[in-house]
Specification:
It is a single chain. The chain has about 120 residues and is α+β, with helices and mostly antiparallel strands. It has a domain of about 80 residues: 60s Ribosomal Protein L30, Chain: A (2-Layer Sandwich). Strands 1-2-3-6-4-5 form a six-stranded mixed β-sheet, with helices on one face. The radius of gyration is 14 Å and the shape is globular.
């Protein structure tokens, strides 16, 4: 039997039900929707914003039976590429002994976010 696309209900209060699914699984692969820092407690501090985003993604992974150690690919979006070192300070060590493949780009982000991250993992 072929693998099918499996939506996960990670947040029962998720407001944008018709726009996207926070986590989609296909076989053992998990695709997490990008998370940004717009509602972080310190939205203009790159270290605090990065930690906030990664903590949220980690919680979503745990909710669907995975972990940061099972992340295969990360894409980091920075409003200002000059924040690269600050982002890295919070990123380092978050994914276990073998860090995932990663791409980091400068991008315009929604809602005045300074950092956004999306990941692909397995369960």
């Amino acid at each position: 039997m072929a693998a099918v696309k499996e939506p996960f209900s990670v947040n029962p209060n998720f407001a944008n039900k018709h726009l996207y699914t926070p986590v989609i699984g296909h076989g053992e692969t998990l695709y997490l929707a990008g998370r940004t820092s717009w509602n972080a407690p310190e939205p203009e501090d790159i270290k605090a914003a990065t930690k906030f985003v990664l903590d949220g993604l980690e919680a979503e992974l745990k909710n669907v039976g995975s972990s940061m150690e099972k992340v295969l690919k990360v894409v980091v979006y920075l409003r200002d590429i000059e924040d690269y070192d600050g982002m890295n300070a919070m990123y380092e060590g978050r994914f276990g002994a073998v860090p995932p493949a990663r791409t980091t780009v400068e991008a315009k982000l929604p809602r005045k976010s300074i950092v956004g991250v999306d990941i692909t993992a397995y369960r």
